[in-house]
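## retry 2 of 3
previous attempt timed out at serialization; input unchanged, resubmitting
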Amino acid sequence: MTADEFTASVAAVTSAFGDPTRRDIYLFVRDATASPAGGVTASEVADRFELHPNVARHHLEKLTGGGYLTVAAGRAAGTAGRPSKRYRTSEVDATLAFPPRRDDLLGQLLARALEMLGPDRAAEMADEVGFEYGLALAERMGTGADAANRAHRSLSTAMVAVADALTAHGFAAHTEARGRSLAIVAECCPFGEAAQRYPHVVCAVDRGMIRGMLAGLSRDVEPRVEASRPDGDAHCVTRV
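## retry succeeded, writing output
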């Protein structure tokens, strides 16, 4: 594992489990996932840990954004009204999992195969693939199909969730203000040499992922890439 990969791995785990309450919440959800209840609601977490519901929801969304929890609509037996979200642990054992190590050879071969279509078409297809994957990630985070929730989610909140998801994928990402715009800054690229050799293809995948997640989490936005590591810059920056 390279220094950048190690940094990304530590960032992913620290972002999700650096808070002791969040660690306890994850264990609580894990136990509930294996029980007949099949998960917990934000209200149940708030009651169990004596938290304000918004604080409980923040912790759950942080874990969900990192890929450690999944969320689905559900209703307790014998109740009426709008279904509440039930959080469950994902299939990956988050207590041990680091972002998957890249397969440089496979990444380079796929990028090269795309390049044979021509640079413009290759970048277009890579963006489409990334966008579809980003939408799928947003769906797993429990908001992709919830139009009402998507409409009320602010762009800044959605970008924080996107940065958490990217961090879980090895990008060591965070959000920050860049002038009058918001930006997602990735300090590590998990695609390694493939991104350096085929930046217009690999970076198109990255842009598509971010665009897809934002479309699923908030509203359609077209992120503009300000800089990228393959061009010699220190970090990859996506400005929205």
